[in-house]
């Protein structure tokens, strides 16, 4: 069995790896690759963030008197998922707790990633289920990295994020992977012009973001659209935008539920601000979509 699955519609082709349930390729009808393909600046493409988003203080998860090592963004992105369904336009991959995960994260869980392609749209639904007997606390996030510039020949500074709703004009700062105080962002109405300087201090974090969609757009010199991706999400609460400080040829658009630990917080994991909690037998689904 191949370690990759390709979904095709004629308007879109998406390739998913069993390693990390990671989207590793995304092309439109013209064959142009729109996903960052990894490099020295950042080796990943679209990792799944689970059971945490961001960092914990000291990379340590505290539970019931135990201190367990949990590195940034959790272990799902480095885990091998099992393929449970595959057609030409749909694939479902599953990760469940086992002896290895319980040594890092002492909770029962089932995480499924369903990829569905229809026309020019790829939908990615993550479903977390609690098959255990205790409450399951967790964070969940998507981290797809798109090409920046999105079109060859269009300068990076001629790209923008166009939010679907008015945002506050502030984002939380990130310092050594932890959440710092708010800082202003150069929002013009619902439009955030993109520049390398925007990410000089790491990611922009928008907690409880108002928008449920945005456009990532590249514009020609005359202001016309050279290419745009429409991005939307359901179930996720927060949003991160990131490129490598110092400049890199990618932009990550990241819907999240949960964020990194705030500076100065280092308590019981289940009490971490912003986590989701599932009672035994419950499940929760969150979806993001990209339309080419």
What does this structure look like?
This protein has a single domain (4-291), classed as Beta-galactosidase, Chain A, domain 5. With 292 residues, the protein is an all-beta fold. It is 1% helix and 46% strand. The radius of gyration is 19 Å and the shape is globular. The longest helix is centred in the middle third of the chain and has 4 residues, at 99-102. This is Aldose 1-epimerase family protein.
List the helices and strands and how they pair.
Layout: E1 4-8, E2 12-17, E3 22-28, E4 48-49, E5 60-63, E6 66-69, E7 82-86, E8 90-96, H1 99-102, E9 110-118, E10 121-129, E11 136-138, E12 140-142, E13 145-147, E14 159-163, E15 170-175, E16 178-184, E17 191-193, E18 204-206, E19 213-219, E20 225-234, E21 238-242, E22 250-257, E23 276-278, E24 283-291
Antiparallel strand pairs: 1-2, 2-3, 4-12, 5-6, 7-8, 8-9, 9-10, 10-24, 11-23, 12-22, 13-22, 14-17, 14-19, 15-16, 18-21, 19-20, 20-24, 21-22
Pfam families: Aldose_epim
Organism: Aureimonas flava
GO molecular function: carbohydrate binding; isomerase activity
CATH architecture: Distorted Sandwich
Low-confidence parts lasting 5 or more residues at pLDDT below 50? none
Helix percentage: under 10%
The profile of the biggest β sheet is: 9 strands, antiparallel
Structural domains: how many: 1
CATH class: Mainly Beta
Spatially, the strands of the biggest sheet line up as 7-8-9-10-24-20-19-14-17
Strand content: over 45%
Identify the overall geometry.
globular
Average pLDDT for all residues: 97
